[in-house]
Amino acid sequence: MTDPSTPEAPSPNPPSAVPAPTAPDAFARAGLSRRRLLGTAGATGLVLGAAGAAVGRMTAPADATPLTSLGAGRAVFHGKHQPGIIDPPQARGHLAAFDLVPGAGRKEAAALLRRWSTTAERLMAGEPAPHDDTGVALDAGPSSLTITFGFGRSFFDRTGLQKQRPDALEPLPDFSSDRLDKARSDGDLWVQIGANDALVAFHALRALQKDANGAARVRWQMNGFNRSPGATAHPMTTRNLMGQVDGTRNPKPSDPDFEQRVFVPADGEPAWMAHGSYVVVRRIRMLLDDWEKLSLAQQENVIGRRKSDGAPLSGGTETTEMDLEKTGKDGSYVIPVNAHARITRPDQNGGAAMLRRPFSYHDGFDADGTPDAGLLFICWQADPLRGFIPVQRKLDRGDALSPYIRHEASGLFAVPGGAAKGEYVGQRLLEG
C-alpha cells in the first residue's frame, strides 16, 4: 500500500436538506418516481437501509421537493481511454478475473470482448443488458457505472498472440510482505466495475459473467466499497480502514506530466496499447487488531501524517509539502525515516508515480474474530517497471507500515486504450 491514492470524488450535487421519503403508494402525490426517489439516497449520504426504514414511516408531505438523483451520473464508454481510470471513484466496486475455457482461443476471445463491449456500453448508458436482462437494476439510472477490461500475461499464450505481449507484462517480483493465494491472483482477462449504486454494480457483474458463458469462466472475484459521494459536508479525501486520510498525493489530470505517467503514448509499443495503461491489482489485508493497539502518536509516526486531517507531521495542512529535514527537540526527524509517506514520495523514488484508484473491502471475520478487511489496491501507470515495482521494492526494505499489512493476492494486466464508436475493446490486438 503506497501513500499516493485517489481523493474522494466531489459530490456531483452539494448536500441539501432531505425531505422525508414517501410510501410507494404516495409517489405520485409527492411528484417522485420510484427511480428518482431511490437515486436520492447516494446524493444525500443516506445508506439504503436507512432510506428503506424512512420509507416505511410514510411521513413525506404531498408537496415534497424531488432531489437531484445521483443515479443520473453517466460515464462515457467510447473514448481515448477506457472508463474507470480517471473517472471519479465510485461507492461500490467489483473486480473479477476470467480464464478462457479449454479450447477457446483468439476467435472466441474476440467474440467475448465484442459482447462485453456491447453490454458495457448499454449498461453505462442506463439501458438493460442486450439479452436476458435480470432486472436487478430496474428503476436505477446509470449511477456513474464504469466497466474496464484488461489482459493478463497468460491471455497471450491462450490466444497465440505471444508476439504482441508487452514487455511490461513480465511477472511481478516477489516481495517480503507477499502471502499470495495463486487461486485469487492473475488471470487471462480482468474486469473492473464501479458504480454509485450497489445494485447497478452487481447487475453489471452478473451481465458480464453471463456473457462469458461458454468462452471464459470466473477465476476470482472481489467486492469493494468507498465512501459515498455526498456523505461529507464538503468534498474530502477519503479514509481507509485504518482511519487514515488516504489519497493526498495522487497524481491529478491537471498535472503537466499526468498523461506520460499514467498512459502509454500514441507511438508506444506495442501499437495496440496506445493510450492504454497497466494496472497492478493487490488484495492487501490490513491487520487491524494489531494496528488498533497502537497509540495515536504511534500510528501517525508509522504513516508520517496526522490522523485527524492528513497533514504531514512537519506541519501545515493536508496539501502542504513535507519537510523531510525538519527535526524535533531531540534532534530526530519529525517524519521518521521509515514513515510510509516519506518512503513513497515520488521525489524519493526517481519520480516514480502511479494513479491509485482503490476500494476498501471487508469479507467477514475469521474464526477467532479477526476481521478479513483491507484494501483492494488498484494502481495505474504507463509502465509498472517505472511505477509500482521500484516503489514496492523500496517499501520492502523498511516501511514502518509493513508489519500491519499482508499482500494476499496479486495481478498485473494490460488495459488497452478506449474503443472508438463501432469498435470493441481490444479489437486492435485481436484483429490486428
UniProtKB/TrEMBL annotation:
Its cofactor is heme b. Its EC number is 1.11.1.-. SUPFAM superfamilies: Dimeric alpha+beta barrel (SSF54909). It catalyses: heme b + 2 H(+) = protoporphyrin IX + Fe(2+). Residues 82-226 form the Dyp-type peroxidase N-terminal domain. Keywords: Heme, Iron, Lyase, Metal-binding, Oxidoreductase, Peroxidase, Signal. It is found in: Cell envelope. Signal peptide: none annotated. It comes from the Bacteria. Residues 237-419 form the Dyp-type peroxidase C-terminal domain. It is an enzyme of class 1 (oxidoreductase). The keyword Oxidoreductase applies. Residues 1-24 are annotated as: Disordered. Binds 1 heme b (iron(II)-protoporphyrin IX) group non-covalently per subunit. Residues 7-22 have a biased composition (Pro residues). Belongs to the DyP-type peroxidase family. Involved in the recovery of exogenous heme iron. Extracts iron from heme while preserving the protoporphyrin ring intact. NCBIfam families: Dyp_perox_fam, tat_substr_1. This is Deferrochelatase. It comes from Streptomyces thermogriseus. The gene is efeB.
